[in-house]
Design a protein that fits this description.
single chain, 3 helices
């Protein structure tokens, strides 16, 4: 199978092509980049896009799970957009480098979804 071009207009994309995609807010300020995606293995739904935020050269970065439903892809820019500002991210649930997250922990999931005011993916 060949490499999928990032600027492809198909609505389907490989997970490794999502990683590294920039995330901007509605003011066109870059907030971070998609570091990983988390998929619910029972439903097949993408649950979260994990965005790296802050830090310098990988030091001091925080990892913010954003509910997938919050992101909107703009093919003309090749980036995802969210209706958040930096201040909102500073108070958001996150984890640091080297920390493990129990993605199956419903309390953690509810904390993330409640913070952003979106319905959990499992509903």
């Amino acid at each position: 199978m060949g490499q999928i071009a990032k600027d492809e207009t198909s609505p389907i994309i490989a997970a490794n092509e999502v990683e590294g995609t920039p995330v901007y807010n509605m003011k066109n300020e870059k907030l971070g980049t998609i570091e990983d995606i988390v998929i619910d293995k029972r439903s097949g739904k993408v649950a979260y896009a994990v965005m790296s935020f802050g830090g310098f050269l990988g030091m001091g970065e925080s990892h913010h799970p954003l509910p997938w439903s919050m992101l909107r892809y703009d093919p003309s820019v090749g980036a995802y957009f969210v209706n958040l500002d930096r201040k909102a991210l500073e108070g958001a649930p996150y984890y640091g480098a080297g920390e493990r997250v129990d993605w199956a922990n419903e309390r953690w999931g509810r904390k993330v979804h409640d913070y952003y005011g979106v319905a959990p993916f499992w509903f």
